Amino acid sequence: MLAGSVRLGRITDLSHDVERIVVLGVGNILLTDEGVGVKVVKELEQRYDFPSHVKLVDGGTQGLWLMSTIQQADRLIVVDAVLGKGEPGTIYRLERDDLPKGLRVKQSAHDSDLLEALTLCSLIDAEPSSCVVVGIQPANITEFSTELTDVIAGKVDTLIARVIAELNALGVYPQKKN
Prior knowledge:
Elements: E1 4-7, E2 10-13, E3 17-19, E4 21-26, H1 36-47, E5 48-49, E6 54-60, H2 67-71, E7 75-81, E8 91-95, H3 111-123, E9 130-136, H4 150-153, H5 156-169, E10 175-176
Parallel strand pairs: 4-6, 4-7, 7-9
Antiparallel strand pairs: 1-2, 2-3, 5-10, 8-9
Helix pairs in contact: 1-5
C-alpha cells in the first residue's frame, strides 16, 4: 500500500512530491483527422506503461467538461488536430502562451471550448503550471469516418514520439509494453 496523501494538486509520498501529469487527447473520432488526439492517446495506452502520477485521458469533444481534468493537472500535454498554416501532416508544438486567448469562432467542434476551459481554470487560479499542445495539421476534418487519412495515420508514431519526448523533459520515462 502506498503511504501518502494528495495535497494541493501533488501526490505526496514518504520520499518526495510528484507532479501530476495529464496527457489529454481531444477531438471528434467521427470526423476523420479531427480525432487524431484521441487516437494517439489510445495508442499510448496500448504501447506503454505509465507511472501512477501520469494520467492519459480521452477528452473527446467534452469541451468545458474538461475543466475538472485540467484542474487535476500540474502539467498538461494536449494532443489535437491544429488548424495552422502548414501542409497536412505538419506537426506543431504550442505552449499555453501560443494559444489564442478568450472567445473566438470555432474551427472545430471542441477547440474553443478547450481554450475556454483553460482560460476559466486560469481565472479561478486552478490551471496547470505548464500546458503544451502537440498538434498536427489535419488533411480532412469534414468527412464522416472513424479512420485517419493516410497522411495523418502515417504521422501517429511521430506524434507518439513527441508526447514521449515531452514526458521525458518532465522526468517521466514510460516503459514499452511487451
